[in-house]
Write a structure and sequence with these properties.
With about 425 residues, the protein is an alpha/beta fold. About 25% of the residues lie in helices and about 25% in strands. The chain is elongated, with a radius of gyration of 25 Å. The structure holds S-adenosylmethionine.
Length: about 425
């Protein structure tokens, strides 16, 4: 049987560590145990995902997380959707941390008596023993699951990102919980967090697992990024959680709490990108786009909203700075800048790599073209980058220039592109 913990009466016995989550409201400290902190979903990501579910008509019942870790994602769902929950965690101290986190959120919001907290239970034990878990809370197991949240543990530093590495294994979770969903016309609501590095073949494997158990179930893949070109979460949202007519979604979480995320949706199949390198050319536009957006495969859907150019070419698609070449400026709306590292028109070319010697040539070129600021947007040796950037900053300051821009490396690897940001051009 599982040990049942009530968040309203759990005691802090000092076996967990508290730490602030930089993305959480002030005054909210979270508990973690046995190195659970790096496994936990950042609070801002967790709440953003829960907020997206506010419009979803869930079936009656509770939210279950059969591998709840420190319980942050589960708590965000329960608090936002005002639903009681059951969280199950194999490691007893982490289970205690989960209950303490429900207590912390409920007491900050002064909602300890609300059903979402008062009726929530955290169980210490095996999340695959679904019937025992439900019976230990309700006396008997009945179909009462409105939504299943799953974020299985994965080995740290895994190179494989193989589905078989997940604990508990996905297929076993699906089998264990399948009988216990409350009925819903669109089938079971599941939010399945998977490795952000899953390949297209592995995603298909996951889809097969779901299809075998629920042949008619709809789903939507969701990539979530907090910037720096990283995919933070890749998840499959099923049944009522899948927005109708959308099978892929990219969500860029904004840097500050309270700002709206940027969402890119598509129902189209993803066409693979290919690289076409042309000789460097003055006058064309170069954009360095968000690597996570490119990795998600939704970049073309987003480009369709910011450009009408038909002859766009990818100079680079791998790495930290995917590079797009296009004839006209992008027309960026509110929030679009979150997906653009840099974008501008090529005004000058410099042959050769950036070195301690050639950085002065770039400064001279920038002065000649009336720049007041130029950022280096290319791979540089980390120990030289501050010197080279500092040299540009110092020498361009107060020299009468008005343009802002950046230096990128042409994909041929031998030419530097000095680019001006269009909005800093004088009319
Ligand atoms: C990635 S963490 C979940 C983090 C969580 N989303 C959060 O926001 O804190 C996955 C957890 O699953 C737990 N786990 C692995 N196998 C389990 C099982 N069979 N039953 C219950 N928990 C399990 C691990 O101990 C780990 O704490």
């Amino acid at each position: 049987m599982h040990e049942v913990i009530d968040p309203n009466s759990v005691q802090d016995t000092g076996t967990t560590q508290t730490s602030a989550d930089a993305t959480a409201p002030e005054g909210l400290l979270f508990h973690h145990a046995n190195d659970g902190r790096p496994l936990a979903t950042p609070w801002q990501v967790a709440t953003e995902r829960s907020l997206r579910l506010l419009d979803v008509q869930l079936a009656d019942g509770i939210i279950v997380d059969p591998a709840c870790g420190s319980g942050l994602q589960l708590c965000a769902h329960a608090f936002t959707l005002k639903r009681p929950a059951i969280g199950i965690e194999l490691e007893p101290k982490r289970a205690q941390a989960s209950a303490l986190n429900f207590q912390a959120v409920a007491s900050l919001a002064k909602q300890q008596a609300a059903p979402w907290c008062a009726q929530t239970r955290i169980l210490s034990g095996d999340g695959l023993a679904a019937d025992l878990a439900l019976a230990s809370v309700n006396g008997e197991a009945t179909p009462c699951v409105a939504m299943l949240q799953l974020d299985p543990a994965r080995p740290r530093n895994s190179r494989l990102h193989d589905l078989s590495e997940m604990q508990p294994p996905l297929h076993a979770v699906l089998d264990a919980w399948k009988p216990w969903f409350s009925p819903h016309e669109r089938g079971p609501a599941m939010l399945l967090d998977l490795s952000p590095r899953l390949s297209a073949d592995q995603r298909e494997e996951v889809e097969e697992m779901v299809k075998q158990r629920w042949p008619e179930l709809e789903w939507m893949w969701v990539w979530t990024s907090r910037g720096r070109g990283r995919v933070d979460r890749l998840a499959l949202w099923t049944g009522p959680l899948a927005s109708r007519g959308v099978n892929r979604r990219f969500v860029r979480i904004p840097p500050r709490l309270g700002e709206r995320p940027l969402v890119v949706d598509t129902s189209e199949p993803i066409a693979p990108l290919s690289v076409t390198v042309h000789p460097p050319q003055r006058g064309e536009h170069v954009s360095l786009l968000d690597a996570a957006l490119v990795e998600s495969g939704l970049v073309n859907s987003w480009l369709g909203t910011v450009s009408k150019d038909r002859d766009m070419r990818w100079g680079m698609i791998e790495g930290r700075r995917p590079q797009l070449h296009h004839p006209h400026p992008l027309r960026l709306g509110i929030g679009d800048d979150l997906l653009v590292q840099a974008s501008g028109k090529v005004v000058a070319l410099h042959q050769g790599a950036l070195t301690d010697e050639s950085v002065q040539d770039v400064v001279d070129l920038a002065l000649e073209h009336q720049f007041k600021s130029v950022k280096l947007r290319l791979a540089t040796p980390p120990e030289r980058q501050p010197n080279w950037q500092g040299s540009l900053d110092r020498q361009l300051l107060n020299r009468g220039g008005h343009r802002k821009g950046f230096v990128a490396q042409h994909p041929n690897g031998m030419t530097l592109l000095l680019c001006v940001e269009p909005e800093t051009e004088r009319p």
